[in-house]
């Protein structure tokens, strides 16, 4: 409204220019107030990735040990911490250092993301945006995982070899041993607390990742976790079957099964020829020959006695007759349940 009381009209392009000037501010304000979509990374995937990395290091170590198998036995045992650190360094060098996932993370479709940069941006909507680890985070990861584990393994082996825990005359060594035990206990307690937090939130599966704010996220949003239960089912069936056999086989009488399948045997002529000369149990010439009653087949004394002692209802493998007594070939008859009255 001007001084004369009339309403002034704005220029024709004023609305369009105001819209172009204010639209970016309005868009940024809307995005800043928009709720960030919560992302849920499978905890099983993260645990499986760590386990696969451990198995990969073990496979590499096994192949490397085979190279030195023809050398002096036990030579690599004293350098085992150095060997483990070298393999861990190789995995770190060709995966995390070059912005690639570790073998376990690659199989589980995971990658590391710098959570600090994602929190500062505040515009993460799918959970897959965000830069990878910085150079400093990569270096500290190597120092903590490779160098820290190597230093701790060497310190424990050195203290155990020097017997710091038994040094009553050296209070400094004893104090160092107590300090090592306290540090180990604190680390285990912190790891357990971190595990509880990880199970609750699904973020940072170990202390190193939490300290560096290195979070595992999905590398490809369209890749599903392919789980094949075929091998697991076969393994479970075989385990149950083997346990059933271990339970039932000691309860079965092998002689009964032999007599059951003897009519179907193809080698009847050879077995009939060996009826008179060999022991039905050990298939050898009887040592201290004894006759089983009532079938009168010849056995070794120890073969027949052990079978009758183990199974009171022992049956002859040749004729399937129950053995009620035993007689030395040319001697007196003895009841098979009374071994003390055998007449030698």
Automatic annotation (TrEMBL):
Q: Where in the cell is it found?
A: Peroxisome membrane
Lineage, opening ranks: Eukaryota, Viridiplantae, Streptophyta, Embryophyta, Tracheophyta
Provide the reaction this enzyme catalyses: [E2 ubiquitin-conjugating enzyme]-S-ubiquitinyl-L-cysteine + [acceptor protein]-L-cysteine = [E2 ubiquitin-conjugating enzyme]-L-cysteine + [acceptor protein]-S-ubiquitinyl-L-cysteine
Provide a GO CC annotation, any one.
Answer: peroxisomal membrane
Among SMART domains, the record links this protein to:
RING
Could you tell me what this protein is called?
Answer: RING-type E3 ubiquitin transferase (cysteine targeting)
Topology versus the membrane, per the UniProt entry? Multi-pass membrane protein
GO MF annotation list: ubiquitin protein ligase activity; zinc ion binding
Q: Which InterPro entries match?
A: PEX2/10 (IPR025654), Pex_N (IPR006845), RING-HC_PEX2 (IPR045859), Znf_C3HC4_RING-type (IPR018957), Znf_RING (IPR001841), Znf_RING/FYVE/PHD (IPR013083), Znf_RING_CS (IPR017907)
One GO biological process term is: protein import into peroxisome matrix
Family listed: Belongs to the pex2/pex10/pex12 family.
Superkingdom to which the source organism belongs? Eukaryota
* Gene3D superfamilies linked to this entry: Zinc/RING finger domain, C3HC4 (zinc finger)
Enzyme class at the top of the EC tree = transferase
Q: Which UniProt keywords apply?
A: Membrane, Metal-binding, Peroxisome, Protein transport, Transferase, Transmembrane, Transmembrane helix, Transport, Ubl conjugation pathway, Zinc, Zinc-finger
This protein's pathway reads: Protein modification; protein ubiquitination
Enzyme Commission designation: 2.3.2.36
């Amino acid at each position: 409204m001007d001084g004369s009381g009339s309403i002034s009209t704005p220029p024709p392009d004023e609305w369009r220019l105001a819209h172009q000037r204010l639209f970016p501010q309005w868009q940024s304000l809307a995005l800043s107030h928009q709720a960030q979509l919560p992302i849920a990374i499978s905890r099983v995937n993260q645990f499986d990735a760590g386990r696969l990395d451990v198995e990969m290091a073990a496979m590499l170590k096994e192949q490397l040990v085979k190279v030195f198998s023809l050398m002096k036995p036990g030579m690599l045992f004293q350098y085992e911490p150095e060997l483990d650190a070298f393999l861990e360094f190789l995995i770190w060098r060709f995966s995390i250092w070059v912005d690639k996932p570790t073998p376990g993370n690659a199989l589980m479709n995971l990658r590391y993301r710098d959570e600090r940069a994602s929190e500062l941006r505040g515009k993460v909507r799918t959970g897959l945006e965000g830069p990878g680890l910085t150079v400093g985070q990569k270096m500290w990861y190597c120092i903590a995982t490779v160098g820290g584990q190597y230093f701790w393994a060497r310190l424990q082996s050195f203290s155990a070899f020097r017997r710091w825990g038994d040094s009553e005359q050296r209070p400094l060594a004893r104090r160092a041993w107590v300090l090592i035990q306290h540090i180990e206990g604190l680390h285990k307690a912190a790891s357990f607390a971190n595990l509880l937090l990880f199970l609750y939130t699904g973020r940072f599966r170990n202390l190193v990742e939490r300290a560096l704010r290195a979070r595992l996220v999905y590398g490809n949003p369209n890749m599903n976790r392919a789980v094949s239960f075929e091998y697991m089912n076969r393994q479970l069936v075989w385990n149950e079957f083997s346990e059933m056999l271990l339970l039932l086989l000691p309860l079965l009488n092998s002689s009964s099964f032999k007599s059951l399948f003897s009519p179907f045997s193809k080698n009847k002529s050879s077995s009939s020829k060996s009826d008179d000369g060999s022991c039905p149990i050990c298939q050898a010439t009887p040592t201290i020959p004894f006759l089983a009653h009532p079938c009168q087949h010849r056995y070794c004394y120890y073969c027949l006695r052990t079978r009758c002692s183990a199974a009171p209802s022992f049956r002859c493998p040749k004729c399937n007759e129950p053995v009620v007594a035993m007689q030395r070939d040319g001697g007196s008859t003895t009841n098979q349940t009374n071994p003390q009255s055998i007449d030698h």
